[in-house]
């Protein structure tokens, strides 16, 4: 069989390569090219061909000078920090819970995973109702059961909306991370815990010195996934607040750039997308290298 | 087994590659079939095999296709139309259609006003219709477009044939007015149209007082005194407020309502598009007046069981969104709803009888005579007019060959001048034709007829807000009003001023971007 794959490697890979090139690689490279031009969606400003419309780094300068871009970048960073911590803490807690019980863990796993099956837009609209009717009208609003200012009208304030988005995303993605953590937890040999118990360790010591180090491969994956997804969050942002009260995140900012001016500045939007790509690449690659170093080999 | 897997993999691979290439070639043959097929029908317009029309209104898709079929039958020219889905982003779809070879592009496409024109003018896709000289009938059609309705950047060029005209104001159920007031409803309605802002404000407050505690109070409209019925009867029984307000929909006050004020300084779109700093400063008065009128409107808004108050709940989409506001109006909880004649089919679907009784009352703002720079309106005249504008234009694609352009011209002539074409516009689309003669045209739809009446009297404003910078209206000014003011219970004189200042400074800032 190995001989077969060796012999047929290139023909077998070719269709996938062609597809990848056509729908990802070529558009990606074209996009980089467009970011240096005055591309307007259907034509190049100031010329018939792209090289006649070449503007150099002007779009990149414009992007960094654009207050909307900078504020959405800052907001995205703040959201990402909170969301990565919250989602992973919740996912790990759920994972510890379902591996800790002996009965019905399969059912719990399914239930916790289910919110993942909902699409981002639908989820955003559903949670809009939850934040307004349940959080505000029923529970935490001025006329609610336990009035708490922070949890009422959460979508009408920049900081509150950030936490509203985090609450929603934890609900949606913690179940997914839980599955990854459960796999990791199941791979930790039971004799390690047994030995530690004989030595008289506490629960916290076992968690800190056995579970966490042994779980590092799962943590690497989960942090990578949540980091990248938080940075790229779009649907939920649109459906929940639509960017009102300065809650526009980066992906949405790029999407709406073409609507901010007439004619639409696709070149500027593309420059923002390139910056966006580079940032995600740097952040996630750094994270993977750092967390990989923490992983222990048995 | 080994042989079989080998064979299978080769088949799979071929299937993928072939399907990929067939998908690509399909794209080429799709709209451009005009060049491929034989002489199916090119009898009048040379070798044109197919006229491709892009329609960015989803609501009349079915009727539009039927209209194209009718043209095909009448002339033998094959017409293919494409209407986008209702609520779909028409610009993104159109941009996708305008990529690539001219052959595949639509010959006629639709543009929503000057803001969108800039893009197609710059790209060279929009044909300047005023430059057409060889087709006298078409030239006559272009020349006859009333100046205020022309799609023009400088007043002389002309890039579109109007799709229809629309208008807006405070929509009111005439029966409800009859149930509120003793005496002649028609006279009361006329006086509501012509009364001053101050009288209108007093009327709004009187209706509000009547809702809370009905009494046979009197109110003066346009100098005439009217008495409320002593008790709540008929449609007046359900009232909870005077206005149905979609507070969470920022464009409803950031675009259309604001446009009334912009009319005081700019007579048309082109003027607003080339605004000077001095002209923008002149908007201070009109914008403050707009803020005052918006204060009145949002202070006497209808809720589900009682009047609505400004505050955090007011801007929640599930409470005061577009659809719930419409429902509140149809349920008779409010006397007025600021909206346009395009809402008629929706009202009709909820309550057909109500839809047949609707009419427009102008949106009034407390201007002073000095505020009105454009035109020679008096304040009273200005406040008895409604904005009537062209929401969309047919443009001809300049990239097409001359025969196709000629065919496109002939199609637009047919649509706008022949009896059959005009019948589709008024009866099937339920539109108000831009070239309608108000004296002879009657429309079956009550709101359309109301607009025709204003047109007949020459009491119409235009839509200069379309000349404001992109995303200035709803997304900037409307957003600011929603976030900072509609959440606030009382507004002060300073608030009126700061809304006006914000709107002006943002316009100045954004026009240079």
How is this fold's topology laid out?
The complex is a heterodimer of chains A (298) and B (513).
Chain A: H1 2-34, H2 58-65, H3 67-100, H4 105-113, H5 120-140, H6 158-186, H7 190-198, H8 203-214, H9 216-231, H10 235-240, H11 250-260, H12 266-294
Helix pairs in contact in A: 2-12, 3-6, 3-9, 4-6, 6-9, 9-12, 11-12
Chain B: H1 2-29, E1 50-55, H2 61-75, E2 78-83, H3 90-97, E3 108-111, H4 113-123, H5 136-143, E4 161-162, E5 166-173, H6 174-180, H7 185-194, H8 197-212, E6 218-221, E7 224-227, E8 241-244, H9 250-262, H10 269-273, H11 277-281, H12 284-299, E9 301-302, E10 307-308, H13 317-320, H14 322-330, E11 334-340, H15 344-350, H16 352-355, E12 358-361, H17 379-382, E13 386-389, E14 393-396, H18 402-417, H19 419-428, H20 446-456, E15 460-461, H21 473-485, H22 493-511
Helix pairs in contact in B: 6-7, 9-12, 9-21, 12-22, 18-19, 21-22
Q: Give the N-terminus to C-terminus distance of chain B in angstroms.
A: 67 Å
Percentage of β-strand residues of chain B:
5-15%
Radius of gyration of chain A, Cα only, in angstroms? 24 Å
Number of strands of chain A: 0
Radius of gyration of chain B from CA coordinates: 26 Å
What pair of chains forms the biggest interface? A-B, 31 and 37 residues
What string, H for helix and E for strand, traces the elements of chain A in order? Answer: HHHHHHHHHHHH
Helicity of chain B, as a percent range: 40-55%
What's the number of helices of chain A? 12
CATH fold name of the largest domain in chain A: MetI-like fold
